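SAMPLE LOG
Freezer: B-3
Tube label: C17
Construct: single chain, 68 aa
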Amino acid sequence: MNEDVFNMEVRKFLKKVGVTSQREIETAVRAALADGSLAPDATIKARVTLTLEGLNVSHEIDGDISLG
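STRUCTURE (predicted):
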């Protein structure tokens, strides 16, 4: 395995995950604020599940996102 190539591929994947996740969160929060289903000072519970197919890996990451 080429460590440099592997590292770069992991970083590219994580960048894609981060950018896409942020966009989805922002879109959902703005829509919920607009329709009144979310308070402007709410805290949202978030969960991401990382699955590595063929490697029998499933890892959950939980966190809170505060709107202020």
